[in-house]
Amino acid sequence: MQTVNSAGKGFPGSKRLLRRSDFQRVYEFGRRQFTGNMTVFFLRRTDLPEEAASVRVGFTVGRVLGGAVERNRIRRRMREAVRLNWPAETVPVDIVFHPRKPVLDLPFEELAREVERGLQLAIQRARVAGEVGAAKPLKRK
């Protein structure tokens, strides 16, 4: 396994989804995109002006993916892949990555490519969704 040294490079809280309410909003009102080893949920934010907006990313790694050590390892690898492929454009979109079991054994280069593809698709489709109109809930109650 290749080790990536990211000393001195952080992933600040301003670029991350941290509150449960943010995750719930993305799941309920957002859209989803399936890639090979993960599902990407995304929602364009409308509460901020365009110039103050930026991409925020969150990760959900469920217990089905393994014990705490495995889940934390998946989360760290995905966070690093996002950090390395951070988009240059500032689009007001929240993105949640939900990995599948094979991510644990996936080589980091493949994981980084898939995360990059997920980021690009989410930003592109969120931009189009923002032009079309308001978001509608995904869940039926």
Brief summary of the model shown:
It is built from 3 helices and 4 strands; from the N terminus they run H-E-E-E-H-E-H.
Helical content class: 25-40%
Strand content: 15-25%
How many extended strands? Answer: 4
If strands are numbered along the chain, what order do they take across the biggest sheet? 1-2-4-3
Q: Helix count, per DSSP?
A: 3
Please give a handful of descriptors for the protein shown.
globular; 141 residues; Ribosomal Protein S5, domain 2; alpha+beta; 4-stranded mixed beta sheet; 3 helices; single chain
Fold and architecture overview:
The chain has 141 residues and is of the alpha+beta class. The protein has a single domain, classed as Ribosomal Protein S5, domain 2 (2-Layer Sandwich), CATH 3.30.230. The chain is built from three helices and four strands, in the order H-E-E-E-H-E-H. The protein has helices at residues 20-29, 68-84, 108-132, and strands spanning 31-34, 38-44, 56-59, 93-99. A hairpin with a 3-residue loop joins strand 1 and strand 2 (38-44). Helix 2 packs across helix 3 (108-132). It is globular. The mean pLDDT is 83.
